[in-house]
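Sample pair:
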Amino acid sequence: MNNTAEITIEFQPKSRFEMIPVRDRLSEEFGSLLADFKQHIYYSYHTTAGYIDHLTSAKLNHSPASMKAYVESFQKLFPPEAGYFHDRIDLRDELTASEKMAEPKNCDAHLTYIGCGLRNCVTYPNRNDMPVYFIDLDGINNGKSRHRKTTVVGYNREEPAGTCQLTVPVTCHSIDTVNLRSPELGLFGKLHEELIARGINYGRVDLRLDRNDKHAGLTVNEFETLLMKHDLHEVIRDPLRFMAEKSKHVFQKPGLVLSKLRGYARYDVVRIIQKTIDELGLKESFFEEMLYFFMAYPASRRLRMKRSLSLLVREEDGVGKIVNGRYQSPILIQWSRASGDRRILEASFTSFR
C-alpha cells in the first residue's frame, strides 16, 4: 500500500448552515480507498466552512447534535444582516463591479467561524465512532448553493521533521491583525524552503504561538480590511457593546440606551448557553467556558481562537507545497501590545508515512 492517498470531495449545500458527514460521503463516493489508513487529515478551502478540531469534538462527545448546538450558540451572538462593515459591499474597493453584484453578505459567518474556533485543517484517527463533519456557515447565496470542496489525505504514521522559529512584526497598537501569508512578510517563502530542505512531500506544518504569549491567537480566514480592521476589532475591543449594537433590531423598542442593551446582551449569552446545556445534557464545565466569550477578562477568553493552526502539505511538481484556498490566510490576532513589537511562532514540520 502507498504511504498516502488523497481524495477531494465537492459539495453543494442545501441550506446556509449545514453539517455534512464527510466520512459517509467518502464511503459512498469512493468506497474503501482510504479505509485502511490509520489517520485522516481533512482540509477545507473556505473561510466560512471548516471543521471542529478533534479535542473539541471529544468534549462534545462526538455528538452531531452537540456540535450543531455549539455552533448555533455562536451564530446567535453574530446575527446575520446586522450592519457589519464587511457587508457594506459598496465600500469593498478590492471587488470589481461584477464581483460586488455576486458577493455574499456573510460577515456573521466569518465571525462565527473565528469565534467558535473552526479550523481549515484537522487530523482525526480513522475510527467509525468519531464522525467528522464539514460545517458550512454560508452554503447558500441568493438562493443558490455555493460550490464547496474538501480534501482528505489518508496516511499511517507521522514522522517529526524538526522545527524552526518565525518572527512576526506587529504594530504598536494593542489590537492588531497580521496576514501571515503576506508576501511582504516572507514567512511562507521560508516555510517552503524548509519543506524542500527537509524533503517533505506529504505532511503538515503546525504553527504555534510562544508558550508565554497569552495575548494573541491564530486563525485562518479572509484577510479583508473591513472584516479585520473594523468588525473583528470591535468584537475584541468591547464584545458586549458589539453584541448589543448588532442586536438592536431584535428588541424593537425605541429609546433603549446602550447600557440597557448591554444588559440584554449579557442576559442573552447566559440564556443561550444554559439552554444548550439543559437540552443536550453536556458537561457544564465545558460550556461555562463560553460564558467568557462576551463576559470575562482577559480578552483571550472572548473568542475560542486557538494558539496553534495546521497547514496541509501535499506534493505538487515533485515538491511539497502548503495548500491554500483562494481567500484563505493564516492570521495572527493580538489584543495586547507585544514587547518589542514582534511575536514569535514555532513552526513544527511533520512528514506522513
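The two ends are 11 Å apart (CA to CA).
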